[in-house]
């Protein structure tokens, strides 16, 4: 490719406009994907005109500066289009720096034999340049660490890795909607701001206007000081005086006009007093009542939080329209600095009426398989990039999960297998015995070593699970299930929900929770109760699983974690 | 239909299981939609077995209590399936109350001629009952107002109206994804928690852990009081003494063992002191610094808010991968008690690189048309319900918008038309003159009266628009556009973004905004800048437009507004 002789522009077959590659309907360019992602690699478009736009990945002058090669990417696919610009067409020095934005029009040509590309663009006109000063550009061509890129979160989508993650994330999101829509589920927007707490556990972010309102009051009080007690007393005196005047006039049977006038004055004095009294109450600082913050003055007249899960709310729809799901952001205010936790992350939570734990497992398995197959069908280019740069096994993993039936074992069986493994010499950091929750090391042993495929563990001990999970006939376990997959361990957690009114009421009380905040949830069991189940999939976990990337902060566009919420 | 003679169950043709209607893949029922939404209304399924599940809309005993008719709905479509249950099969009294959940198995039959239904279910087995006490059920069969239903937000999805809205909302959401995916846009999850303020305007909710952290400290201090100054002094003294011991031993050239031991004691004393000093600093109340709240101790070590728009953040992706959109919740802490405002609402915000205002208008028009067509193609049953119950014209409106080219006029032309209208006798509450923002009454006049179709108004005066909108060559207007539609007025607002570094920097300064918080946004213009544009569609406005419902609180599952955030 390098140094190959290039024909001069005037020898190019002049293509007519009717030979042009159809451009994107709402922009001034042909997506590069439309050229390069064809089965023929684009060679069938040779001779056609095209206007493309994108950013220069690499650029270099050749032939003593008589022309330049640019590798241009527009984000529509991981592949770059090679373009050749003649020095007669544009100032090549401005075009070659990495990161330069270019809009280019020209003719597609099959490059000389022996080159990697199957099509390239011979540029005839440069229609746009967004230049870059290479000395200042924060993300030059050199290989940058993902950690470094987190400090330039607004520019990192311009890198190959973060743009590939964006395409894979987009594909998984649309696959999610497609899967549930095809199965007749309704997408329900559960609330972000909530006054319920899903499990009585979990650190929550508070949502409030108390602080900003207090700041406003403080500013106002500085500009316009509040009345003194003397001001109030004076105003009270005036009301008293005006009142006496009215009384005197009335008892003296004065004229209607005089009485009306005096009443008007009294009213005015009263209004003035109440205004002063209102302002007198204004205090700097956040409003307090009985030694506590006065949430009666907050925006929602009560404490409000960011949701930790949409499950309880989406159940209200499952108990009315049968098959539903929610897919949205959820929040945890935990001070976790690990590579697996975010303060803001996305969850997919289906909920199915007239369905039990087995249906739940069937749905979870079908959904995960669908996602894997979707990526293989729609994102193989990006997956190749991931396999080359992050995780050699990621494509094989998708293929395996898409095609292998998931193992299903009870929690009791899982514990037995783990105890056996320990007897066989396997060492775990935390002890395994019936009744404890499985640690990540146990989960990964089961899926990665023991079965080497996805495993669904079901029927967990009641004591380690949430109040809403259905109590099994043994009274010791609940109808919960977790889906474990290689690379990330737990990908999905779900359960059949307790639909029996008395049982769930007793469970709430048993766990020391108050009934009152759950009355609405109990109503779903009081009136027309239905067998139902659901699960939650951590969307970023699915991305870690798919891409092989190690840190969750790199698979969400704008990561939020302790000390960090850029943009 | 009423009183029609029913054959006894034993005369029904015993259908084999292979004749059963295929049930939902992940639940124990055939969706009623699969039966009734067929072109033949279900009659072609006669003779087949089916297990259905749902909730009783109306139920009544007939034939002196020998059988009952139930109208059952499962949310899969607005239509109810009529079922007939024989008294020999179940206790009819438990089945007939409105709201009862039933799981029913039986055989589908064509009802006697002269009835409305084209298929009905003859029940052979009642597999589930979730009873209702009609005396206590909060939403009985009687017609309830939408206002009343807002007080039972957890049960209102069981009503015909709210479930129809849920299906229409679901359809519009999936149509949105389908439209943008088909046009090669990537779905980007912009952040909910943000430290940027989109326009320097708009009341924002604050997100904080300062208050809950302070509450934790207070509880802890009560349980475990902080050290006194004397405690600190004593600990300091101990450090001093231990230090002196180390010094003495060293100068006396004591044994290594003795020195090591004394150093260990010194280290321990120092650790104890620093622990005490740490706890000594704990103060009840929200942490302050220099007379202000100390956000350095907040979760993100700075003030954080709920986003008012994902636009600025999604631009970082448009400037890297070209065509993107975000679709998620946004927030305004405005004390608006109108039927058009919510504190939490959903927005669709595409952003397109290599595109100008014309492309933006083309995209907006194509998107709105696509949504309307989608509803006509996928939700006609629900739209019929809306037309019957809320807005006779709603289906015609969808048809008109789906098929009519939108009128496009400049702001200047719009003002001229409005001034003409005033001259012709039309009265508006607010004055129209060049330079003022159009009020809702003006917008509705243009789209409902003047043109009687959607209108796009473009090129607004610079002074009334945001800093990021591209300044036109006249220096007086910016490349902004609003899409106005009958019934709701403004449905979409968008603009071409200012891509010229110097121009946008000067605009920020001109508007009295600080540069520093926008440096990241300026970087997008500093490095490889690109012509780009985008718009925002208020998703609930689209629902008001489609359904004809008047209050925005009824088209979102869990409305949030001042004083109200149920569940």
TrEMBL record, chains A, B:
Q: What GO terms fall under cellular component here?
A: mitochondrion
**GO terms of biological process kind:** asparaginyl-tRNA aminoacylation
Aminoacyl-transfer RNA synthetases class-II family profile domain: residues covered:
324-557
Domain WHEP-TRS, first and last residues per copy: 231-287
So which domain of life are we looking at? Eukaryota
Which SUPFAM superfamilies would you find in this protein's record? Class II aaRS and biotin synthetases, Nucleic acid-binding proteins
Query: Would the keyword Acetylation be found if you checked this record's keyword annotation?
Result: no
According to its UniProt record, which reaction does this protein catalyse?
A: tRNA(Asn) + L-asparagine + ATP = L-asparaginyl-tRNA(Asn) + AMP + diphosphate + H(+)
Q: Give the enzyme class.
A: ligase
From the UniProt annotation, give the residues forming the signal peptide.
none
State one molecular function term (GO).
ATP binding
Question: Which Pfam family is an annotated match for this chain, by its short name?
Answer: tRNA-synt_2
The alphabetical list of record keywords is: Aminoacyl-tRNA synthetase, ATP-binding, Ligase, Nucleotide-binding, Protein biosynthesis
The answer to whether the entry has keyword Repeat is: no
EC number of this enzyme: 6.1.1.22
Q: Which InterPro entries match?
A: Aa-tRNA-synt_II (IPR004364), aa-tRNA-synth_II (IPR006195), aa-tRNA-synth_II/BPL/LPL (IPR045864), Asn-tRNA-ligase (IPR004522), Asp/Asn-tRNA-synth_IIb (IPR002312), NA-bd_OB-fold (IPR012340), NA-bd_OB_tRNA (IPR004365), WHEP-TRS_dom (IPR000738)
Which NCBIfam families does the record cross-reference, listed alphabetically? Answer: asnS, PRK03932.1
**Which family is this protein grouped under?**
Belongs to the class-II aminoacyl-tRNA synthetase family.
| Name of protein | asparagine--tRNA ligase
């Amino acid at each position: 490719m390098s140094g190959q002789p290039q024909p001069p522009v005037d020898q190019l077959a002049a293509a007519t406009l009717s030979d042009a590659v159809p451009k994107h309907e709402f922009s001034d360019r042909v997506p590069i994907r439309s050229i390069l992602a064809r089965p023929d690699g684009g060679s069938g478009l040779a001779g056609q005109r095209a206007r493309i736009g994108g950013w220069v990945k690499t650029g270099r002058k050749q032939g003593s500066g008589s022309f330049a090669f640019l590798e241009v990417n527009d984000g529509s696919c991981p592949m770059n289009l090679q373009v050749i610009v003649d020095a007669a067409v544009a100032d090549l020095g401005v075009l070659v720096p990495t990161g330069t934005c270019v809009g280019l029009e020209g003719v597609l040509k099959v490059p000389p034999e022996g080159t990697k590309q199957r099509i390239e663009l011979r540029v005839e006109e440069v229609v746009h340049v967004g230049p870059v000063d290479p000395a200042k550009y924060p993300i030059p061509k050199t290989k940058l660490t993902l950690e470094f890129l987190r400090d330039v979160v607004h520019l990192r989508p311009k890198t190959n890795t973060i743009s590939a993650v964006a395409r894979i994330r987009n594909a998984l999101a649309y696959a999610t909607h497609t899967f549930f829509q095809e199965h007749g589920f309704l997408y329900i927007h559960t609330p972000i701001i909530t006054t319920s707490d899903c499990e009585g556990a979990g650190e929550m972010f508070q949502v409030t206007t108390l602080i900003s309102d207090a700041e406003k009051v403080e500013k106002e009080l500085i500009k316009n000081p509040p009345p003194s007690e003397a001001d109030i007393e004076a105003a009270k005196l005036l009301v008293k005086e005006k009142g006496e005047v009215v009384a005197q006039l009335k008892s003296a049977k004065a004229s209607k006009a005089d009485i009306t006038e005096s009443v008007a004055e009294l009213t005015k004095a009263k209004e003035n007093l109440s205004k002063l009294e209102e302002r007198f109450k204004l205090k700097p600082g956040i409003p307090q009542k009985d030694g506590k913050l006065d949430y009666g003055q907050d925006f929602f007249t009560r404490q409000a939080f960011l949701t930790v899960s949409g499950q309880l709310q989406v159940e209200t729809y499952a108990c009315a329209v049968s098959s539903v799901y929610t897919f949205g952001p959820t929040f945890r205010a935990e001070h976790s600095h690990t590579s697996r936790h975010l303060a803001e992350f996305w969850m997919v939570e289906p909920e199915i009426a007239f369905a039990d734990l087995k249906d739940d497992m069937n749905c979870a398995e079908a959904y995960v398989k669908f996602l894997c197959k979707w990526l293989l069908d729609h994102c193989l280019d990006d997956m190749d990039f991931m396999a080359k740069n992050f995780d050699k096994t990621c494509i094989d993993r998708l293929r395996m999960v898409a095609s292998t039936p998931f193992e299903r074992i009870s929690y009791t069986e899982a514990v037995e297998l783990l105890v056996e493994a320990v007897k066989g010499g396997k060492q775990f950091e935390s002890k395994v015995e019936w009744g404890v929750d499985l640690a990540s090391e146990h989960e990964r042993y089961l899926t990665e070593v023991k079965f080497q495929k996805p495993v669904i563990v079901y029927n967990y001990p009641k004591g380690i699970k949430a109040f809403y999970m259905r109590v099994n006939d043994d009274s010791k376990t609940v109808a919960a299930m977790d889906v474990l997959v290689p690379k990330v361990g737990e990908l999905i957690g779900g359960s059949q929900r307790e639909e029996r009114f008395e049982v769930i009421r007793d469970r709430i009380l048993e766990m020391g929770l108050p009934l009152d905040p759950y009355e609405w949830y109990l109503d779903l069991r009081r009136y027309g109760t239905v067998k139902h189940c659901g699960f939650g999939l951590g969307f970023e976990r699915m991305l870690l699983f798919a891409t092989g990337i190690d840190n969750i902060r790199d698979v969400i566009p704008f990561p939020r974690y302790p000390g960090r919420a850029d943009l």
